[in-house]
Design brief:
The protein is mainly beta. The chain is 10% helix and 46% strand. Strand 19 and strand 20 form a beta hairpin. The protein starts with a strand and ends with a strand.
């Protein structure tokens, strides 16, 4: 009987095309309405809600998303806020881990998830992405100003922001290019610092998992004081953080061999699903000590000296790199879970600011920050293949029975796949130093009896990166070393040494689980001289802004902000030519290039009638690489009732290509792809190759049109309650992105898009390289809505504060214009644009002086592997690249609980101290298993889940102590 299930309730018509705000969207809105009382009962955060009670109000407010400065000004663009109380309640080891809990944030990266970034040197970075649009489409600001990137791809490392000075984090969830320029397509994350802090505070916190690993600690100190009758203000913050490195995903849930594979029994007409997800799957091409992969001895694998076994392949097929059952644990041993669970992270941060009031209305200031980070992690126990000749000395001396069998079969060599037992795991050791200096002045004056504000500054940012790989062999040395033979005296030497005795070659044993000698490892690792690149990224920014009241209309004064900005981004560096090519990983090249940006903007806020304001902004931008482009925004606020405010925006935004997309020099990395059986290619099956990534100077800025519409409801009959709802839709044209290596293969051999075949290079019938270059895709579209609620009331002797936030991702479609559109909304695999259907964070505070209790629930709903994929367990239709058939297309969501208790106590003078105990993932919930695969030789090394979405560490305990005078 046929049993076919389409994915997760999404109609097949919807999955094949973009849709307007249709019946499905209406159903989603009805769900939203039903969710509001739930949010009140199980709290979150309030967008557009009043400032939390524990934060002091200020007179002049700059709202993220607008350059208008005013008292009580409300921007039409939704802004979500994380305040000091939220941050202090969890005392996060890294503030980005905390900010990434916000539902509108999807597609971010952490130092843990970036541990595989070897050749691109992205390891150790904490990044933030909004709306599942990618990190590059989220603009990160510090006090409304740009910060220098830590990678050539333009990613700002959140580690570089002084965490203990962060007063609040404002997140604008919509386009803001007219206000801030390029990159604000998905939105803006603005870290507001407490630059006016006065006093002295020191703090320390530490954390450890329930398994006794993931240990970290942090020390911090801040001093702020005024001199010269309060005209001179000095502020200094210093912090140090260290996180211990934990090698391997040492968790019970990671030992079941749970992957996604190509079904070995599948044919187009036998009713079987093409893809399978489940446990008990293992690779077929290697074992820890080596597996003979072809010929009459296929299946023989090497153990300790003199010991071999015969592999049970279970269920598999020709050229399939996976098997079901059989000795799956044998092939996974030594490779499974070898990626770093927690990377080494050491950070030293220094922040200094000096401000001087020249007059009561004019301040000149200088600001300097320095961040040094050292990050080290392991990638994977890399599988590789080698040819062992019949006269190999280690074969003859350690495995004579195999040598005899080869002789009997007249074999001159055997092909062996190995995950290299005894070899140290390749990884990276990256040191980054980020310098940021800002000098400027700001002030106030009256013009024609109208208040004005002005601000000018110059910023210089420099990132110096030392990017070194570890345990990466030189291919030429490995080729010489593994060809080991006996010399005339019975010594094991390299074959090359027989004809060139002075070449320094040290023979290496590639067979068995005992591992090679240290001398052999030193030789293939180039005597410790590993691939190394120095890169320097520079950012210069100069800006001048003036804002204030222009002239009066019957409903009030027109407010305005206008200004000019100039920016230069550049990359340069150095690499020893020996590291350009010929290495397992790295193959570094120098990235060089720069571009300049000149901009001017104008923003107006016009009162139409009492309670109704229209906000409009326009910006003209000239890029030295691509010419002029314009952006604009129009929004409105309407206070329809005392308790009800409507808001909406239309915006036209851009993102220009970053330094990496423009100037990448062709850095190479080793990877693997699957070329399907029957393809018109010299080779098929799972094949290793070198992936070359190049920049494209012909790229033009991508263009986005977005709109939001929402309401804020603060009913007088429910004191302390605030609700908000905001719908958003973002359409990107000429979106910049790259086709992956596997997509390149699929386009060429499955979908017959011949224009991609020249990017695949074979040498002597063997897959050699695949070239990847960013292009301007056809389009990308995302839409959804945010719901937020808050409630504050006196309950018993204390104060109860409830906050709730939820985001529903209706659609997130990427259409490359070449193959077919892919909707990533509701997809829970580890892909760049994946975002759950629903994401939520709910928080409850109960304050009863001197104790504050906090409970947080955060999570996301069930999802799928692919919205177009067809789940079936028999009588399946023929699988296609778009409509793949799979045995199980469901992935469970998760909910996590965090709790904290804070004790406040007096210190000397009028000082206050805090002692906070925090437990994250209170119930120690294991991650849901997610079937990664089927392509990529690194799949077994990673956690058998989506670690960017699920908690892979488990329950963690933190203690934070802070004393303030």
């Amino acid at each position: 009987m046929r049993n076919v299930v389409q994915a997760s309730g999404r109609s097949s018509q919807r999955r094949g095309m973009m849709e307007s705000f249709s019946a499905r969207s209406v159903r989603a809105l009805l769900l939203a309405g039903a969710a509001v009382p739930l949010l009140l009962a199980a709290p979150a955060m309030a967008q557009g809600a009043p400032t939390p009670a524990d934060e002091e109000p200020v007179n002049d407010i700059v709202v993220t998303g607008s350059r208008i400065v005013g008292d009580g000004y409300s921007a039409p663009t939704p802004v979500a806020v994380l305040g000091e109380a939220d941050i202090a309640a969890q005392a996060p080891a890294n503030i980005s881990d905390f900010v990434n809990q916000m539902p509108a944030i999807a597609g971010s990266g952490t130092s843990g998830t970036a541990s595989g970034g070897l050749s691109n040197a992205g390891a150790g970075i904490n990044s933030i992405g909004l709306r599942g649009l990618g990190v590059g489409r989220t603009l990160v600001l510090v006090d409304g100003q740009r910060s220098v990137a830590s990678t050539v791809g333009g990613t700002v490392d959140i580690n570089t922001i002084p965490q203990d000075l962060v007063k609040r984090v404002e997140v604008i969830t919509g386009g803001a290019s007219a206000a801030y320029g390029s990159d604000a397509v998905g939105g803006v994350v603005n870290f507001i610092l407490d630059t006016g802090y006065k006093g002295f505070k020191i703090g320390a916190d530490t954390g450890i998992s329930t398994y006794g690993d993931a240990f970290n600690y942090r020390f911090t100190g801040t001093a702020g004081f005024s001199l010269l009758d309060d005209r001179l203000h000095l502020l200094t913050n210093v912090s140090y953080f260290k996180q211990n490195r934990e090698e391997g995903v040492d968790r019970d849930w990671n030992n079941s061999g749970y992957f996604q594979i190509n079904n070995p029994a599948y044919t187009a007409d036998n009713g079987e699903p093409q893809r399978l997800v489940g446990s008990g799957f293992g690779p077929t091409g290697y074992t820890a000590g080596g597996l003979i992969t072809s010929g009459v001895l296929k299946g023989t694998y090497f153990l300790g000296e003199g010991q071999t076994g015969q592999l049970n392949y279970g269920s598999t097929s020709t050229s399939n790199p996976w098997m079901i059952g059989g000795d799956w644990q044998t092939t996974l041993a030594g490779h499974e879970g070898t990626n770093t669970l927690v990377p080494l992270d050491k950070r030293l941060s220094v922040f200094q600011r000096i401000g001087f009031d020249v007059t009561p209305d004019i301040e000149v200031f200088g600001q300097f920050s320095y961040n040094r980070s050292i990050s080290a992690s392991s990638y994977q126990q890399t599988p590789s293949s080698t040819t062992i000749r019949a006269d190999n000395a280690y074969l003859l001396s350690q495995y004579p029975t195999v040598a005899a069998a080869m002789a009997a079969a007249d074999l001159s060599s055997i092909s062996v796949g190995t995950s290299n037992a005894g070899f140290p795991i390749p990884g990276s050791n990256i040191k980054r130093q980020v310098y940021r200096a800002v000098v400027g002045a700001k002030g106030k004056f009256d013009l024609f009896d109208k208040p004005m504000n002005w601000d000018v500054y110059y910023q210089k940012g420099v990132t110096k990166a030392r990017e070194e790989l570890t345990n990466t062999w030189m291919n030429s040395r490995m080729a010489l070393a593994q060809d080991a033979v006996f010399d005339g005296s019975g010594n094991i030497v390299c074959r090359s040494t027989l004809t060139n005795p002075g070449n320094g070659c040290v023979p290496i044993d590639r067979l068995g689980t005992n591992g090679p000698s240290q001398a052999a490892l030193d030789y293939i690792y180039n005597d410790g001289n590993q691939p190394l690149r120095h890169q320097t990224i520079k950012q210069d920014v100069a800006a001048a802004t003036i804002s204030g009241k222009a002239f009066a209309l019957p409903a009030g004064d027109i407010a305005f902000a206008t200004g000019v900005e100039w920016r230069r981004e550049q990359i340069n560096g150095s690499v020893d030519p020996v590291f350009n090519s010929g290495w397992l990983y790295g193959n570094f090249r120098v990235n060089q290039g720069k571009y300049d940006v000149a901009e001017g903007f104008l923003e107006l806020d016009v009162p139409i009638f009492d309670g109704m304001n229209v906000n409009a902004a326009a910006r003209g931008t000239h890029y030295s690489t691509s010419g002029w482009v314009g952006t604009w925004k129009v929004g409105a606020n309407w206070q329809a009732l005392d308790s009800l405010r409507f808001r909406g925006t239309l915006s036209h935004d851009i993102r220009a290509p970053n330094l990496d997309e423009l100037f990448a020099a062709g850095t190479a990395r080793t990877n693997s792809v699957i070329i399907p059986t029957g393809a018109n290619a010299p080779q098929t099956g799972s094949l290793q190759f070198v992936q070359n990534a190049f920049g494209n100077r012909a790229l033009k800025p991508e263009v986005a049109d977005s709109w939001t519409l929402g309401a804020v409801f603060e009913p007088s009959f429910l004191p302390g309650v605030s609700l908000s709802f905001d719908y958003y839709e973002i359409k990107i044209k000429d979106a910049i992105g790259s086709i992956t290596a596997q997509q390149t293969v699929d386009l060429c051999y499955e979908q017959n898009v011949t224009s991609y075949c020249p990017n695949i290079h074979f040498v002597n019938g063997q897959l050699s390289t695949i070239d990847l270059t960013p292009i301007n895709f056809a389009r990308q579209q995302t839409k959804g809505f945010d719901i937020e609620a808050s409630y504050t009331a006196q309950v018993g002797p204390g104060t109860l504060r409830l906050h709730g936030q939820a985001t529903h991702y209706i659609e997130n479609v990427v259409d490359d214009g070449i193959s077919f559109p892919i909707d990533y909304a509701g997809v829970l695999t580890n892909t760049t644009y994946a975002s759950p259907d629903w994401v939520y964070r709910v928080s409850a505070f109960y304050d009863i002086d001197p104790v504050s209790l906090n409970l947080v629930a955060r999570g996301f709903t069930d999802g799928v592997y692919g919205n177009d994929w067809i789940e079936c367990d028999g009588d399946c239709p023929a699988s296609t690249a778009q409509y793949r058939t799979i045995n199980d297309n469901s992935i469970k969501g998760a909910v996590y609980f965090d709790a904290s208790v804070d004790f406040k106590f007096p210190t000397m003078g009028d000082g206050i101290g805090h002692l906070t105990f925090i437990v994250n993932n209170l119930l120690n919930k294991d991650p849901v298993l997610v079937g990664n695969g089927p392509d990529g030789n690194n799949v077994p090394a990673y956690a058998q889940t989506n670690r960017s979405r699920y908690d892979v560490i488990g329950r963690t305990f933190r203690v934070s102590a802070k004393v303030e005078f």
